[in-house]
Amino acid sequence: MTLETFQFVVFSQNMYKSKERVKDINISKGGEGDPSSGLEENLYSTRRTKLIHPPIEAHWNFPSREEYRRSSSNLSVLTKPSKFRESLRKFRKRKDLKTILEGAHDPKDEQLVESFRELLMLDTQLPEKQNDYHTLLRFLRMRDFDLLKAKTMYLNYLKWRDEFRVDTISKEFKFEENSEVKKCYPHGFHGVDRHGRPLYIERVGLVDLNALLQLTTIERFVKYHVTEQEKTLNLRFPACSVAAKRHIASTTSIIDVKGVGISNFSRPARHVFMEIQKIDSNYYPETLNRLFIVNAGSGFRALWKVLKAFLDARTIKKIEVLGSNYRSNLVEVIDPSNLPKFLSGNCTCSDYGGCLFSDKGPWNDPEITELLQAVVENEDENIDEEGDEVSEEMGKNQTENFYLDNEDVDRYRGRNYIDKPVLDNIKEVETAIHDTKQKIQTLEAALEDTKMALQGLANNVKGLRI
User: Which own/partner pairs from 45-54 qualify as long-range (CB within 8 Å, at least 24 positions apart)?
Assistant: First the structure.
């Protein structure tokens, strides 16, 4: 989920303005074990029905060469200190750039991803695209590594991409009304958090829905939302990874809900909220690291009870609802230079007409995008050179390394890497796959015997004719 799931909560300019200052409402503090997230919550609490996994900064799939050329065609130049530019020039020559973009793979996650990949291949349901390690892992995590549930979710995702024509929309859709839309619906990316993740900000309390619907349609706005999601996956995350020199694969978000109450949740607002929430939760899972909702008054607390019904439990655990005394919480995670003045920060982005118009971030730095394009082109060349030989070797390795033997399973269970039901589910699926393969081999042997019998019968018939 992103902050845009709240974009149509307000339906007019004349909104209820609560002057009441409320105490901070801590909905979540996140996940323990990830120092970068600043979260202090037990990962595998026995009180929860769903596991809370640490941020998914583990792998990256390179976008196509055309996607980078299209995304960087009208980039603005960001001023960076000379020391950082020198660092980038040295970084360009380092061999571990690809490693940082891809991220370190957790061995236990790799095993689970390969099991998932094998399950999809068994039914010939693994497509040529959208099958990288990172994508498969996101769907596994969203379903707590339940292979069968993750498979259903993943196949629905592929069907949606085809029916919604996501690839075509990403290439051809132009949201010309964007600058005017931002005037009546202030939102946008602005810098990064202290870990290097993209920072997304939205001012729901200033949304004028009537003016917005005069500028665009709900259908076009949903398409725009999808193109922004694709841009975040294909450009913002890898650019932030280069700038931070570590793998980035999730966003930190802030929603300013000053003045928002239950009366703002109109029918059009509910329709768009549900549509975008469905897209974010079902088709772009595990891309939100943390969400701060600030300036929450008594009116929003009533609305929050309604909104939570549309959100999955995993998303709710990543949300922290705060009143007007929110600054200390934000600066703990975000440097004040990346916070606009209206959020108690130091930035104004006066050259761009305001912070939410700037799209400020590493993804707009020409040196970084040039470096990323060079990596993509090099990756394409390597793929062309390696050809079928690499594919066959990868397939061989996947087959050889597919099964978890009992010793591995016991070791994982002993270290509390994965819950026992998850491991048992994996073993059951692997056993079913193994039995199916044996049946196929038996059928192939029987077919060969049948062929031989028919050949003998044909010879006998031929002899009788003579």
Answer: 48/313, 49/313, 50/144, 50/313, 50/314, 51/144, 51/419, 52/314, 52/317, 53/141, 53/286
Name every residue whose Cβ is closer than 8 Å to that of residue 315 and which is 6 or more positions away in sequence: 1, 281, 288, 291
- pLDDT given at position 232: 96
Q: Computed from CA positions of residues 449, 450, 455, 459, in that sequence, does the dihedral angle turn out positive or negative?
A: positive
Is residue 240 within 8 Å of residue 362, measured between CB atoms?
Answer: yes
| Lowest-confidence pick of 25-39, 272-286, 352-366 | 25-39
* Partner residues linked to 321 by β-bridges: 25, 293
Closest CA to 51 of 460, 422, 435: 422
Mean pLDDT over residues 261-277, rounded? 75
Rounded CA separation 360/336 (Å): 14
The predicted-structure confidence for 134-164, as pLDDT tens digits, reads as follows: 899 999 999 999 999 999 999 999 999 999 9
Count Cβ atoms within 10 A of the Cβ of residue 464 and give its class: 0-12 exposed, 13-18 middle, 19 or more buried.
Answer: exposed
Query: Mutual orientation of helices 420-465 and 107-122 as an angle, nearest 10°?
Result: 30
Residue 6, pLDDT score:
45
The tens digit of pLDDT for each residue in 413-425 reads: 343 434 455 556 6
> Contact at 8 Å (CB) between 7 and 305?
no
Burial class (CB in 10 A: 0-12, 13-18, 19+), 435: exposed
